[in-house]
Amino acid sequence: MTQHDAAAPGLTIIGDICIDLILGTVDGWPAIGTETLMERSEMRAGGSAGNTALAMRYLGAPCLLFSEVGNDSFGGWLAQQFADVSSDLHGCDAATSISTGIIHDCGERTFFTTRGHLEKLCWQNIERQIHAAPFPGAIALLTGVFLLPRMRAVYDTIIATLRKLGYQIALDTGWPSGGWTEATRGEMLGWVAACDHILLNEIEITALAGEGDLDRAMQRLAPALRPNATLIAKTGPKGAVGLQAGTRVASTAPLVQPFDTIGAGDSFNAGYLDARLRGASLADALGAGCRTAARVIARFPRQAIEQGEFAIDRALAES
Fold first, then answer.
1. Most buried in the list 49, 58, 60, 155, measured by CB within 10 Å?
2. Do the bridges between strand 139-143 and strand 109-113 make them parallel or antiparallel, or are there none, so unpaired?
3. Per-residue model confidence as pLDDT tens digits over 83-142
4. Per-residue pLDDT band at 312 (split at 50, 70, 90)
5. What pLDDT digit, counting tens, does each position of 221-254 carry?
6. Residues 157, 162, 164, CA angle at the centre, nearest 5°?
7. To the nearest whole number, what is the mean pLDDT of the chain?
8. HEC string of the chain?
């Protein structure tokens, strides 16, 4: 077990938060000009950084969240959703980004996302508030870079600055809206080489590596990793696979039947990183991530989840 002040936020999250409006389900796509009634809906805080911070809240685990919100009424509402999370959320001169997720009967999703404040998120505003790592092994998680053009332009600088401040770096980029071009792959591999925990899903890893088989893709990316860095493949209902120092470890996911799986990977990040911060092995941390993701997506609406409600999962990771 890593020895440090248990109340000190060991995880600092820097990235995208937005409003998620979840609606469903639909059987096929409605014709233009028609109206469709949905059986379920929820408006909640979202974005990769936001989902991870909220999952940490559900676990009763401390973290710090740095991001921005828009200067409209939605921005005020969004900031309020993180009232129980230690956060620094600047207001910026833009409308708050909103992502509408339509859930199909087959379980797949369609998203409509406004550009809004995400394109204004600025490292200079965040850098002034970032302090040195509170203890050796503290982690800074960077999320959603492809939605954040101003952050993306200085991502190498962000990673270098955080490392100088004593942080391990965790990275979850999401999917590039322009696809995995050769230029994007090269840019991404540069970030990967500078990070300690690379948290991608199976499709992102195979696309990045240009290799359709997951295990071969992970092996192809392994030479680009820092010594002792960990490459994680989140494989949805199958669980997760981790590769560290040439050793492959897999964990299965608990069986759940969720209404929506939005934010599952972000919730995995919370469980995994929290376990690593507390000294868990790769295998145990993968298991903690899978349990956290399963617990979160099994609930709808998620706003009913209480702070610390999933603390039992932290105890399981320690046992």
1. 49
2. unpaired
3. 999 999 989 999 999 999 999 998 888 889 899 999 999 999 999 999 999 999 999 999
4. confident
5. 999 999 999 999 999 999 999 999 999 999 999 9
6. 95
7. 94
8. CCCCCCCCCCEEEECCCEEEEEEEEECCCCCCCCCCCCCEEEEEEECHHHHHHHHHHHHCCCEEEEEEECCCHHHHHHHHCCCCCEEEEEECCCCCCEEEEEEECCCCEEEEECCHHHHHCCHHHHHCCCCCCCCCCCEEEEECHHHCHHHHCCHHHHHHHHHHCCCEEEEECCCCCCCCCHHHHHHHHHHHCCCCEEEEEHHHHHHHHCCCCHHHHHHHHHHHCCCCCEEEEECHHHCEEEEECCEEEEECCCCCCCCCCCCHHHHHHHHHHHHHHCCCCHHHHHHHHHHHHHHHHCCCCHHHCCCCCCHHHHHHHHC
The neighbouring-strand residues paired with 17 are: none
Other Cβ atoms less than 10 A from the Cβ of 256: the count is 15
Token couple for 172 = 């979850």
Contact between 11 and 133 under an 8 Å Cβ cutoff? The reply is: no
pLDDT at 7: 65
pLDDT digits (tens, 9 = 90+) for 28-81: 889 999 999 999 999 999 999 999 999 999 999 999 999 999 999 999 999 999
CATH number for the region 11-318 comes to: 3.40.1190.20
CA dihedral 214, 46, 196, 123 (to 10 degrees): 130
Nearest to 41 by CA among 14, 16, 62, 23: 23
Whole-prediction pTM value? 0.95
CA distances from 153 to 95, 150, 187, 189, 295 (A): 22, 5, 11, 15, 36
CA 21, CA 112: separation in Å to the nearest integer? 10
- Kindly state the tokens that stand for 126: 């965040």
